[in-house]
Amino acid sequence: MLIEFYGKNFGCFRDEFRLSMVAADIDPGNDRGIVEVKLDGHKEPLRLLRAAAVFGANASGKSTVLRAAGALGSMLRYSAFGGWRRGDDGSGGDLYAGLLAGTLEPFALGKASEICELGVHAAFDGKLYHYQVAATTKRVVEEQLEQVGIDGEGTVLFHRRAKQVTGQWRDQEGGNFAVICEDFRDDALLLSLAAAMAPMQARKTWHGLCRALGVSTAAELLPSGFQPRITDQVLRHLLHEDDDFRRWTEDRLRAADTGVTRIEVKKERQPAASPGGEAQRSVFTPMLRYSISLRHAGDGVEHELPFHRESDGTRAMLQLAPVVYGLTHPTPSAATFFVDEIHESLHPALLRAVIGHFNCEAPKERVYGQLVFATHETSLLDGEAKDNILRRDQVYFTKKLADGAATLYSLVEFKERNNLNLRKRYLEGRYGALPNVDQLGEPSAGGTSE
């Protein structure tokens, strides 16, 4: 489970930002929004938040928070395999950019370090871990993995600065990790390399951190790292391969009165596109493609509609279905889900019902994941704080400062009473993080008005 994610000098965040999933002591005796994690040696479980929502004006940094978590997850998942994209070298040709260059985004609106810093605290297998990385778009500067004990003291499993590596794994006899440390790529994360080449030491820890960062390590059931939405091909794969998920999704579509009675998915194999052209096409493994159609009731019989003819709302519900299902069912997919613009094309009442069920109604023993999302849907704040769908410690805000840098802060920083309406106070401007619309109708400097 995710405990905390943080970063610095990434995207529009020049200074450090932190998003904590640790439940604050704001509502004693109320388990709304809480999931409990048992830790070895601890009498009391760790109380974490099931969800966190990020509100703010457009271009204030909401998506960047999610994208930063996805960047660390993608590097951790794939850096052992080298780069992942091609770019323009300035002469019209392709340039192999590498994973770091394709993932990291140093702050660009002023003087700042070229080094991006990202880190995560996570709990899994009854233990606490802290993992952090400092890197440029070309190389990893520093990397450290630490296991934290019940007394708060940590055991450094490894610490890497440039090519120098120290720590418990490095000193352990008979392990492959020491061999890897003799020579490794400076643009790859050591933990990612160790997961592939020293699995006895690193695989379980790597797997747990990937899940906390929203990255599936099992059969690529979900996209790696942050994605604004579940891709159509991933959705179709899940609907075809998992009958329980398909039936669950059909039930939800019927309950939401979409008119859909049944989902059909067909699988076919197609040749994969080859960078080398037709001459090399035969050496590539054919790709699986899935076609989806939804059955609708009409005139006493079912009628088939192709997926592209469905409403935006129905498509949005389908794309969100793997997330909602994974939060309340034991699946091999990621344990933390990061979703941008979760409200898009969904009716506010439907979104409130989805978030409310997971966050407030599902029993703690039926919660298998966490949800971090960005949204503009203020109806999720509409209610007295003590009864609202989202707890105050589950609400974060982003805003841009005068110099263009973004900042992230929690609603808990405002000492509010539990009988106040959070939506009303937010829209009144008491928490900031609102767009400035006072001058929206005024002409810009040098412009003219009719």
Q: How would you characterize the overall build of this protein?
A:
Helices cover about 25% and strands about 25% of the residues. By secondary structure, it is an alpha+beta fold. It has one domain: 3-Layer(aba) Sandwich (Rossmann fold). The chain starts with a strand and ends in a 23-residue tail after the last helix.
Oligomer: single chain
- Rg result: 23 Å
CATH-level-2 architecture? 3-Layer(aba) Sandwich
Question: Terminal Cα separation, in Å?
Answer: 57 Å
DSSP strand tally: 19
Instruction: Indicate the percent of residues in helices.
Output: 25-40%
Summarize, please:
The protein has eleven helices and 19 strands.
How are the SSEs placed, and which strands pair?
Blueprint lengths: L1 E7 L8 E4 L13 E4 L8 E4 L1 E6 L5 H17 L7 E3 L5 E3 L2 H5 L12 E9 L2 E9 L4 E9 L5 E8 L2 E3 L1 H4 L4 H5 L9 H8 L1 H14 L19 H10 L1 H13 L4 E11 L16 E12 L2 E6 L5 H17 L7 E4 L8 H14 L8 E5 L20 E6 L5 E5 L11 H6 L23
Parallel strand pairs: 5-17, 5-18, 16-17
Antiparallel strand pairs: 1-2, 1-8, 3-4, 6-7, 8-9, 9-10, 10-11, 11-12, 13-14, 14-15, 18-19
Helix pairs in contact: 5-6, 7-8, 8-9
